[in-house]
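Hey L., structure's done. Input below.
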Amino acid sequence: MKDLLAIFWRLLRAHRWAMIRGGGLSFVVLFMGAALLGLSGWFIVAAAAAGLAGVGAMFDVFRPSALVRFLALGRAAGRYGERLLTHDATLRELEHLRADILRSFLGASFGRMTRIRGAQALNRLTADVDALDGVSLRLFLPVMAALATHLVVYLGLHWLLGGQIAAWISLGYVLGGGLILSVAARLSAQGATARERASQDFRSALIDMIRARRDLAVYGRLPEQAARVGGAEIRQAAGAQGQDAAERRVGVLLNLLTQGIAAGALGLGVAAVSAGDFAPAFASLGFFAALGLAETLAPLRRLAPDLGRMRMAAHRVRVQIGVPAADPVRPAGGAPVARTGPRVVLERVSIARPGTRLPVVRDLSLTAAQGETVALTAPSGGGKSTVLLALAGLLPVASGEMRLNGTAIATLDEAALRASVVLVPQRSALIAGTLEDNLRLGCETITPEDMQAALRACALERVSVARGGLQMRIGARGEGLSGGEARRVALARAILRRPEVLLLDEPTEGLDQKTAAEVLKGIRDYLLHSTIIMASHRQSEVVFADKTVKIETGI
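Output:
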């Protein structure tokens, strides 16, 4: 429960007064409900008894009936205010919670970011935050309001009927409700994991089928994917049926508890009347108050199918928003980029991949001057991409030192580093929109002339002109472009920033020899004074470079 408590405490801190007022109104609603039913029952019995005794004309019907109307109207108004306050506060805080979760993704290490699968992350975020709206609305606020109601009702019944009936009703509901809540938690936990997994599988499979429908059709795998979606939907429906069964079981337990407490209160009242402790009408007061207090247990039935899901979601969200970034943390006011010596220097640098201790790169040294192009070579998996990530400040080095303009990269201010160094990884994301939209991701202040110059440098001008120019439409993940065209759009976007150091991971992948040579020359002409360091696997890239550095792997 500590995860659920932590989420509720977060909600309470963010919207303290709205939650307190909403909880107070929830108490008012429950108390008025119990008082309304108890008073109505007493009023009916007392009026009937007065009529049978022949004193009906003397019985005061006006004040009790006025109080009944007051309680009924007050209960309706309190319910409206409680829903307005608590729902508004909860939804506002869940909006901030979504932002915090997304911010945690942005603050994650590069290695973790590359492992995040977009559809699954979005599905998980949506499902978890949707589940957490019940933490305050269906769990803590109703339970606290119920406990406060039972305390006040106990005091009132103790004053009117004595301690025996009051204790039977209040303790019966509190202890019985706690027991049923524990049963609900156990029943919910049994099916929550299976249902949640089936729900995530269904969403992911459906999104994959929609996005990759053409590729699936080309390879004849569309029926197989449709069957996978159908299977996940069946498992999701089976999980929902299991949760509904758990809710029904909890409902049966609640009904039995209510009937037992009401019957016991009536029996104790009859015994007290027989002993002459109070008038017969008062025996009905305890009975009807017991029935009215059944409303305090109503949230438990709605909570039963969701409690397990809420607990899992609260745990994942706490872990998510509490995970610090694994990347090197750079001070906001760190060292600026200096302008002394060679532009890039690596001295006996060893680098290990995240989560491992064995260096994939060992004792690497190199220097790169302004306007120089350096090609890094190594066998596949030999650490070329790892070196570029380290130079971009996305991976720490195990030993040695990397310097940019004479200053250690690990100490550079984040903003200054991003302004000076740009990395184009092997897989660069393109967004759905126009070609201009994608280019402006690199730099908001560029002009159409700048964009056309970058497109010419990357041998894309003819392609763009033939398909609408800068307003050419691009689908999600570069859909509508060939692999080589998408690659060149990412390169054009990077060079528009005019960085001092451009890091390219296999920049001509997917290009023919002629286009590859044209793109490399275009980039160098566009960035005459920039240092370019490439992870190279093609001979054309090695030949184009001013010098080649072979990486010695640590494996």
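The longest strand covers residues 359-368. The CA atoms of residues 506 and 538 lie 8 Å apart.

-- N.
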